[in-house]
Every structure is written in structure tokens, then in C-alpha cells.
Amino acid sequence: MMNKKVLVGMSGGVDSSASAILLKEQGYEVIGVSMLLSPSDTTEKYKDAVDVCNKIGIKHLFYDLKDYFKSTVIEYFKNEYLAGRTPNPCVLCNSVIKWDKLFEKADVLGCEFISMGHYSRIIQDENGYHLKRGLDDKKDQSYFLYVMKKSVMPRIIFPLGEKVKSDARDICTREGFDFFSRKKESMEICFIPDDDYQKFLLENFKEFKKIRPGKIIRDDGVKTTNTHEGYPFYTIGQRKGLGGGYSEPMYVSGTDPVKNEIRISGRKGLSSDTVLVKELNFLEKLDIRCVYTAKIRYNTQPAECRIKEIENGLIEVTFKEPVFAVTPGQSCVIYKDDLVMVGGIILK
User: Fold this and answer.
1) What is the pLDDT of residues 229-261, one digit of tens each?
2) Does residue 218 sit in the same domain as residue 303?
3) Active site residue 290
4) Which of 265, 283, 303 is where one domain is finished?
5) pLDDT tens digits, residue range 89-134?
6) Taking CA atoms, which of 178, 219, 299, 347 is between 20 and 30 Å from 16?
7) Number of domains in the chain
8) Strand partners, 60
9) Coil, helix or strand for 54?
10) What are the residues whose beta carbons fall under 8 Å from the beta carbon of 125, sequence distance 6 or more?
11) Residue 178's pLDDT is what?
């Protein structure tokens, strides 16, 4: 008989709470776990998660991963900015925390499955298991999930994959939970709740305090006396903090960590039709004859493209129409309709 014991990652928000409720209704033995990740995390932060578990009659526990999270995700976050790249900590977190560490805890507890409130789908057919976009296009999180291994897909349940956000709210309201109405939807990086990453880096790492203002170099060769506050605090496509006096809106087009310089350009100079992608995780076999779509950041629509595998473990993505602000360090994820094919880190 199948072990129907499932460990659910619970933040105290509507999505993870609705997932726990649905799994209990489907006959699973559910255990809720709240992971302490950020240096400022306390058990009080997850009071709502505890309340939900108590009310629906499931066990809840805390999992303190602060040290591990700091040595992996936060360390990566710091090093990428020092290298002049823009990190994507949510992708790494899904890999080393939500898949590796959560499965470790599930195995200790004897749980066959793990679950989270992600709006994505894992489906099974005659060819095995596959990752697909969620039904709710606005909430789909498959962009962050491409790093999962196919071998763990049979053990992952996404109860909200076939639902939309309003469904999750309705499920929680039906169970008598009204505290979600006072909660703002979280869109920031979890360990930077005020979304001020410059402040976070300056307050937590001495390396960033040593970086001084530097030159701004225009790609068109026109001289400017404007300066920047330090290269790590700028990302490609950024407009703020570049000073004034330009004849058109200017955007960051690149950074130079060695010279502590940033380059800027008009919008047209940030358009590109080709992207090189490294550190690939293939979930499906590519066919170079096919037309695919790709996302180069989370909050964009997939754009039509073609793929070519090249040497040194890279793929070249060529878009039908130029895309704006290709950013090294961010992820590029390739889709065939709703199916996640492959993803990796943008090299250039």
C-alpha cells in the first residue's frame, strides 16, 4: 500500500495553507514544516502556519536551516554581486533547500512525499514525469523550479497546479481563516523583506563598505561626469541612480568589477536576440528543429526562440524578436507550450 504521508512546506501564507488543507481532504497524513532561513527568522513569524495546522488537525514542526541557508544561498547572493552579476537566489533556494534539505527531513520523518504551495504541475504519462507551468499564468512558478531533478518528481505534489489564486483564498476562507486578508502578497526576496538589497549587503558584508563611487561610461562614447555609488548596486536594465543631463532615458548595460565602472546605454542598446546559457538542467530532450519559447526573468512572458546546443555545455538561444536587458546571473528557462524543457544561468 502506498505511503500517503506528506511533508508540506508552510510559510503561513494562503498558498501553503490551502495546499495542506487540500492534501488532508485527499486522505494524506500531512505534516506541516516551517523552515527558519533568514538570519532574522523567528518561530513567531510562522504563528499563522502553526494556527492553520492546529485548526485542521495536523502536526507542525520547525526546521532551523539558518546556518546552511547563510553558507549557501546568502553566500552565493553576496559573491554574485561582487562579481558584477545579478543573482537569482530563489532558484538556488529551490535546489539546495526545498529539494535537498526538505527531502532529507521527509526521509527522517518517513514521508513519501513533499509538497509546497507552488502554482506549477508535475504530470505523468507513458514517458515518465514532467514539469509544466501552472494553470494560473500570473502565479506560475515553473521558472524557479527548472533545477529539480527528474528522479524526485514522483515524490512531489503541487496541489495548486490546476488552480488559480482565488481558489486558494476560497479554500482558506471556507475553513474559517480570515487572517490572509490582512497579509500583503510577498514579492520580495525572503531574506530582504524591505526589498533593499543594497542596504542588506552594506549592513552584512564588509566587502561592500570598501567599494567607492566610480565612473559611468556611455556605450556611445559621449562623455559624462556623472558617477555611481559602487558597481554591485546596479543591475542591467536599471534606470535609477545614473544622474541626469541625458538626452534620452539611459539604462545600465554592464558593470566592470575590476575598474568599478558601470556602462550605460539608451534602450535600443540593451536589445539582444541571442543569449548564451550555462549550468544547464535538462528535463526533456531538445529538438533543434522545433520552435520553443523562453523566459529570461520571472516577470516576463515567454518569447519565441530557437535553440542550438554548442560546445562546453552551453546552449545558444536565438529569439525571433530582440529581448530587453539580458542579465548575466539570471536564469533562462525554455518551454515547449507549457512543458519545461531545460533551464540554466545566463552567461551573456
Assistant:
1) 999 999 999 999 999 889 999 999 999 999 999
2) no
3) no
4) 265
5) 989 998 888 889 999 999 999 999 999 999 999 999 999 999 999 9
6) 299
7) 3
8) 32
9) helix
10) none
11) 78
Cβ atoms of residues 172 and 180 within 8 Å = yes
- Pair (59, 175) in one structural domain: yes
Q: Distance between CA 298 and CA 204 in Å, rounded?
A: 27
Instruction: Give the C-alpha distances (Å, rounded to integers) separating 323 from 66, 294, 308.
Output: 37, 10, 18
Rg of the Cα trace of the chain? Answer: 22
Q: Are residues 149 and 24 in the same domain?
A: yes
Q: Please tell me whether residues 31 and 140 are part of one structural domain.
A: yes
CATH number reported for the structural domain that contains residue 62 in this entry: 3.40.50.620
228 and 312 belong to one structural domain = no
C-beta separation of 296 from 327 below 8 A: yes
* 139 and 276 co-located in one domain: no
Q: Is 234 helix (H, G, I), strand (E, B) or coil?
A: coil
In a domain, 187, yes or no: no
Q: Choose, from 93, 111, 172, 305, the residue flagged as catalytic.
A: 93
- Active-site annotation holder among 53, 111, 172, 190: 190
Instruction: Provide the CATH number for the domain around residue 221.
Output: 2.30.30.280
CB 256 within 8 A of CB 263: yes
Distance CA 89, CA 228 (A): 25
C-alpha closest to that of 46 among 65, 58, 33: 33
**Are residue 258 and residue 279 in the same domain, yes or no?**
no
Q: What DSSP state is assigned to residue 119? A: B
Active site annotation includes 190: yes
332 and 230, same structural domain? no
User: What is the per-residue pLDDT across 145-159, written as a single tens digit (0 to 9) for each?
Assistant: 999 999 999 999 999
Give the range of the structural domain holding residue 318, as residue numbers without chain letter: 271-346
**Cα 206–40–190 angle (5° rounding)?**
90
Cell numbers placing 16: 501553503
Cα(142)–Cα(131) distance, integer angstroms = 8
Q: What letter does residue 95 receive in the DSSP assignment?
A: I
The three grid cell numbers given for residue 132, joined into one nine-digit string: 509544466
Please tell me the predicted confidence (pLDDT) of residue 187: 61
Tell me whether residue 290 is in a domain. Answer: yes
Q: Is the dihedral of CA 4, 66, 50, 119 positive or negative?
A: negative
